[in-house]
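Repro case for the chain-ordering regression, as requested:
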Amino acid sequence: MPLLDIRNLSTEFVTDDGVVLRAVEDVSFTLERGEALGIVGESGCGKTTAMLSLLRLLPHAGRIAGGQALFDGEDLFALSTDEFRKRRWRDLAMVFQGEMNALNPVRTIGDQVREAILLHMPWPRAKIDARVGELLELVGIPAWRAAQYPHQYSGGMRQRAMIAMALACNPQLIVADEPTTALDVMIQAQIMELLDRLRRDLDLAMIIVTHDLGVVAEACQKVLVMYGGRVAEYGPVEQVFGDPRHPYTQRLLKAFPDLDNPQAELMSIPGSPPRLSALPTGCRFHPRCPLAVERCVIETPIPRSVAAGQLVACHLA
Amino acid sequence: MTSTPPPSDNPAILEVADLAKHFPIQRSMIATLRRTPPRLVRAVDGVSFELRRGEVLALVGESGCGKTTTAMSVMGLTEPSGGMIRFEGQPLHELLRRDRSLRQTIQMIFQDPYESLNPRMTVGEIVAEPLEVHKLYKTKQATEQAVLAALDEVGLRPAAEFINRLPHELSGGQRQRVVIAGALVTGPRLLVADEPVSMLDVSIRAEILMLLNDLRKRRGISILFITHDLATAALFADRIAVMYLGRIVEIGPANAVLAQPLHPYTKALLSVIPSLNPHRKRQHLILQGETPNPADIPSGCRFHPRCPLVIDACHATDPHLEHKQGHEVACIRV
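-- result from build under test --
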């Protein structure tokens, strides 16, 4: 049984005027222990919203409209808020996007990591302090720096502190939302190396949400490509990147500069990702798809298997 | 269209020699009274390069390397602490002091298309503004024609439909095209592009880069392209200069620098860029630690504390750029 089994997740936002916006629709995937899944897509594709749904941290206007999140066989969405609160951070935790800038500037890093532990495990002070030191060392920060404040840490160190906080209660699954954006390329490499080591050493299941296909190619075993809130393609990274079947995946790969082939002509996808308030009918990608036919405008494609473990949502694949 | 003097015969449109920009750190009261010299943030600490007519030179480096400060100096937006910048053979800052119209000839494109456009001005007003500031046309109609032509040239067609739009009605890619139109409308010969695509979705970066490339070819504009992304620089630049802590550590033709990086820092940077091919895992030369504070530049070679090839001599010798194997590199170990 996979550690995480997301089935047909759908999430909506309701605006003040009562308009319902479908941010995530019919998203399914699985994740094993020790495995890394990359969720890729551009602005507005719903990847962050899907993860916030999983952790039940949607803003007030958001609500899970359907689907199940089976964690070790148990549906997290069926739990009450209180019951889930006990599971959040203990079983699954998240490193949020840009979080390194959201650290409390007037409290030490140590205090903030301590807070994450205390909320779930009321240990005696000495034990918690030891754990804080352990966590910082685990992410490559010398334990003595627990007494420092966020402004005394560099961007890369703050990101490591965020990862330490997410690991505080020994979760089985970590979601990292754009863990490398806004970091210098060398620091990005350090953070990715850290996440990879943690995944292997702690047998952590990991979901990495990113727009950077390169990060997924190097760090993940599986990839989920999202577009306009729906799944475009899903499967093992070698297969999806080696033999992409969805026109969006194909063109997205061609839009990425690849240093292994720097002379290759870079292609753009005309138009831009759809806004939630103006989602195209049928296949959400059809306005930008070079292969679109009439069926694509009318009928929304469902992901179906095209090869072992590879699913594509396209009428023409 | 512009009133600046015609270009000289000099093939180099821009010459930067030993450029330095140091920012003093505010001292305590006691230190001020004692006249202790202030500590300096050496953001740019001896940078030299040439930019030829019609060429794209990429300045590549991580944050704190001084690339943006260098760009600001070239734009004349900040006075250098040392060194010299020549534009078409003449000292840049003196020229600017004497004749503001030079600003028509050197223009800039900024990184954040969501922040760089005035949200209360229409696209037409934004692109017309430089023309009005420099009083380039005598009539409103003539100005409008120039604006329409600029919008058309950057791919915002039909231009008449875009002229009355407000920035928030446009996508990121369209906004960046407006920025480019505004920069081109005065007919510049030099464009400084500071991370022009890093805030755009990947699927639209290519078209903006292609637009810049077309414009460069068609108009013969020289471009100083600032970026932290070597892969983007690889696509577009004729030459690449790699910066570290206020200095250029390697500079040469783009193909040469990418295929045969000589400086250990360049090698490391190239090695950590993720490859799309999951079967081809490059060996990552991940440098430990972070770039030092430019207020505390290491002695000798400023890269020595993180360098995998460091030897004793590196602690004492501050290497200069030297010609080696087809391009220039500042390293005694090459």
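Ordering looks correct now. Residues 1-6 of chain B have pLDDT under 50 and may be disordered.
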